[in-house]
Amino acid sequence: MNEFVGFIGIGNMGLPMAQNLLKAGYHLKVFNRTKSKLSPLLKLGAEAVDRPCDVVGPGGVVITMLSNDEALKAVMLGPYGVLKSLGPDSIHISMSTISPDTSRELAPLHRKVSAWYLASTVSGRPESAAAATLGIYLSGESAPKSRALPILQKLGRHISDCGEDPGAANVVKLAANFMLFSVIESFAEALAFTEKQKLDRTAVMNMLCDNLFDCAVFRNYGRLLATKEYEHAAFKVELAFKDLRLALKSGESVAMPMPFADSLHNRFLNLLATGKADWDVCAIGRGVDEQAGLA
Amino acid sequence: MNEFVGFIGIGNMGLPMAQNLLKAGYHLKVFNRTKSKLSPLLKLGAEAVDRPCDVVGPGGVVITMLSNDEALKAVMLGPYGVLKSLGPDSIHISMSTISPDTSRELAPLHRKVSAWYLASTVSGRPESAAAATLGIYLSGESAPKSRALPILQKLGRHISDCGEDPGAANVVKLAANFMLFSVIESFAEALAFTEKQKLDRTAVMNMLCDNLFDCAVFRNYGRLLATKEYEHAAFKVELAFKDLRLALKSGESVAMPMPFADSLHNRFLNLLATGKADWDVCAIGRGVDEQAGLA
Amino acid sequence: MNEFVGFIGIGNMGLPMAQNLLKAGYHLKVFNRTKSKLSPLLKLGAEAVDRPCDVVGPGGVVITMLSNDEALKAVMLGPYGVLKSLGPDSIHISMSTISPDTSRELAPLHRKVSAWYLASTVSGRPESAAAATLGIYLSGESAPKSRALPILQKLGRHISDCGEDPGAANVVKLAANFMLFSVIESFAEALAFTEKQKLDRTAVMNMLCDNLFDCAVFRNYGRLLATKEYEHAAFKVELAFKDLRLALKSGESVAMPMPFADSLHNRFLNLLATGKADWDVCAIGRGVDEQAGLA
Amino acid sequence: MNEFVGFIGIGNMGLPMAQNLLKAGYHLKVFNRTKSKLSPLLKLGAEAVDRPCDVVGPGGVVITMLSNDEALKAVMLGPYGVLKSLGPDSIHISMSTISPDTSRELAPLHRKVSAWYLASTVSGRPESAAAATLGIYLSGESAPKSRALPILQKLGRHISDCGEDPGAANVVKLAANFMLFSVIESFAEALAFTEKQKLDRTAVMNMLCDNLFDCAVFRNYGRLLATKEYEHAAFKVELAFKDLRLALKSGESVAMPMPFADSLHNRFLNLLATGKADWDVCAIGRGVDEQAGLA
Hints:
Number of helices of chain A: 12
Shape of chain A: elongated
Radius of gyration of chain A: 20 Å
CATH class of the largest domain in chain A: Alpha Beta
Oligomer: homotetramer
């Protein structure tokens, strides 16, 4: 278990994930644009490097957890990019929420240097990352998967193999987030509807979660929506909107009409236009409330 | 347990509910417009009556489970209507999915004859009704609730008290159905999106249900949507649309904007316009598929 | 031209219409629930009556211009209703914006007493009513139309015959108003879009109206939208919403999906929820501005 | 009038525009990727060149009319790009429908070589281009406008100055096209609504255009929609969708919620998913008809 792993991207999600790998005994070389965010990892024994390409040597494993396609491409293909350090048997586990097409574009570039690209997207908020209970969607060629699995098992509970299309795990992740936003929107509309009928939001939320809607996604977001805790961000509106736009763009590329996604597009733009870019994604409920005259 | 109970409305849901009461030892007087539907109940010992008002005597309990507001009003207020038979201590347990305003209108008419009106809406498909695992939302004045409870406990598992507003249980039911339709629409869009990206619908459905969306509503409808079993109706499109319209109308009465409900309104009209009134509500997925060029 | 005409419904539209008939030499008997609104007509020689049925005698012509289906039905079918006074050769020119189905229901009731029902809906704001430049859609059986025409020619410029279906003129009117609301919504979105790009709303509005969108509906509403004159009501939000709901309901009756109508439904509910029921319909633009963070 | 003008992009719109300039006495050097399309111009005396940079010499004027941002950037900035040939007093009149941000990005690159960039977008179908009755929106610095005007006056009737922001003419064009698509969608919904009520589409279309909607945009598209002439493309669905996406993207850049644009996004994706990419934009009406069970 004293394998070296490179880790790039130490944000809300990347930090607890990297901590779990350190706790599990991996040696970590870490890179982050903002260096100050590395300190909790250095205390646990991680080694900071100055350039992306330094996180990994020939044949090594590198994990990326960045905020968008551009950041990932910069880190992989830019000056001192990681791709330069990869060679035979190297594995890049790409965990960011990015466009399926970016994965489909990067995978062959990895094969050119005999390295492997795996898309391995995650489902869950930072608390799940800390508890190593993330859901993980994995896609890409089969060969490198068995080596990646023990690492991923330190990060999450459920690992689903989405097949060999390198973009598949990204497709599933975008679908999951779209469904998540739809859950929030529909629950928010339902609670505001009942509030305007003079019912108690929390009581209604509990009833609904005790019956048809008895799962974590409804309970977690239902609690935030019922009590109108919209501001404290675990998953910022602007990042959620980035994911929705990726889903819409990916939908455009295959001519897929998604009316709920279009409706959410309007919702998110309203949140951004009224200064809520840094609120939590459940601020969708605030948009609902405002338009209903409840806020 | 040898109490007499009147039961009006023997359809997909009413039949298994009445059967459960008979099995639990209640004596049932039953009325249904279409008499032939009563035979399974008669075999279990129920007594058929010819007029609504004959299902219940003074001080008795009557359950109604009808398809809409008009049917309920006809049975209660029309010629030989039930209201004429109600008196002090009579309880009407109104279980149909109807407008909150109809409950708010009927409750005081019951009090005029010293009877009680309870709205007691149910959540679940016919299988749950048969298994007596329905979720039940109960609202109305407190006095009659303790007498109604043992009866309701034979019909469902979870009984949630929504308070004294007679329409509250109807509000919660409409909110629940709206959320259900939203779940189906979003899941259907997500699965078609992944199918157009060449992923396997069932595999994706299982992955999503194994992670964030791990509850009955996603699993049950997810399976139907993944395998495109759209036709066999447990909950017909036209009845589902009736419920959506009740939600929209109730939303209009309190000026509640609900963009997802508006989007679903368009979806249902498309299903009706293309001959799917008798399909199951998960035919929402067929509408999604058709518009995506997948059907 | 000294024919007697009954006129019921003296509101924003009815008043200038009745004035035009008086100026044209007709004798008017007028009824209005709020009597004070009649005074400008009495000065011009109209005769006020106390009951709807008194505005017209056997064989006479009566015009109704009321705010909704219920008001029309009350005046026609209620106690002292007009229908009682109608007989052979009587003509009822029904000019309110009502449901096509109400016309289809009233027409045969008129034939039962050998009277005629014509739906004759109008297009235009109060200014056009005053200038007698309304557009008029006429439907119903052919026989009475030639007698109605000279009267209608005093009220409007363009009279379009929609055929014999008594509801047809109502259908066209609902379609026209739906298109009008769509024009306002799209223009409002376009102007807010350009404002957020730092362009001048009035300049843009003029450019658009000088090119593709060179007609009265764009110029009139464009000016109000460009200068944000949203409050002064010629056509109140709540009346416009009534018309939209009639269109949606009529669309439901023939299973017609109308996504723009659904989107407008959401817009109007937002306006009502935020206290703009009495603003002008162009307050649609205010809703757009608010959600864009411009107001 | 024997000035030399370079012209790049000879498509549906570019061809008649270039023809008008030739007829007006300008000398034209023309470039098009597909050379065969140049022949009608060569007959009129135009000179074909092999590389974009050859259409214009120092101080000259060049017009571009290309299908999208990428094509324009390739022609300007790619190998043998036009920018290399521009110098002091050169004017680039950029007439393509492109993103405002592309204009804002290109304008300073022109100033670096002391040349001028003007965005000069056009409103109208190929017939208007042929008749030189296009509407033209012009933006950019003032200095070069007086030299550009006589040229533009040979192409269109109405020239509106949108100010100095180089992207302004693009913003107005995107707003105009969004409004155009909204007109088509709302008219299509209205006509299908009336058809389902058994009214005649053409009769209704004429009535509406004779009253409130009395302008070219309603008459032209109304005729196509009424008679369901959806296929013969003057403005292809896929190009229209490109423009809608530019509007949505530009809206995203300023956080502008546009619910009608979101609804149209869904409509266009449905048209693409069902094989109508090459139909005319009025195929929006076909989408409406299909979803209404009318096609």
